[in-house]
Amino acid sequence: MAATKPAIRPAVDATASCRLLIDLTRVGWEPRDIADAAGVTLLRLRRVPLQRWVPALLADRIRAAHDELLTWPAEPRYLDPVAVRRLMAGEPPAEYTRDERREAVRRLRGQGMSLSEITAILGVYERMITRDLTALRRAGAVR
Predict the structure, then answer these.
(1) pLDDT at residue 59 above 70?
(2) What distance in Å separates the CA atoms of residue 85 and residue 42, rounded to the nearest whole number?
(3) Which helix (H) or strand (E) holds 60?
């Protein structure tokens, strides 16, 4: 009897893969960690939300990474206290992470500052601070 070839699975709808990626980022996983777990490049992973269809193999890898990563809590990122203090003082360091900015926003909001005051201190767009506050509210860090 002749061996049968495995069926070639074409591209599948990207909606489920996008939802799995969103699920992982909401619990704190960074895209680079998700890409490593899925065994794909970060660039390839970032293209998924932009596509209507993804290869079935990629969808399977994203699903496997999702199942694997949800069994482990996301590692907390190191916050440089000096960077946070400099951000709060209106003297941002040359490089700082999103988590350090969010910590500065959390602390400034805790001091009773308004959105426009925080925007002026950090020197970023108001929309960025709004997104940070939304993420902090979801995490229960601010009201």
Answers:
(1) yes
(2) 31
(3) helix 56-69
Which three-class secondary structure state does DSSP give residue 89?
coil
DSSP lists the bridge partners of residue 11 as: 55
This prediction's pTM:
0.52
pLDDT at residue 131 in the model:
86
Show the tokens assigned to 110: 């805790």
pLDDT greater than 70 at residue 11: yes
d(CA 45, CA 31): 8
Long-range CB contact pairs, 121-126, < 8 A, 24+:
121/87, 121/88, 121/89, 121/90, 122/87, 122/90, 122/92, 123/90, 123/92
Residues whose CB is less than 8 angstroms from the CB of residue 92 and which lie 6 or more positions away in sequence, other chains included = 86, 122, 123
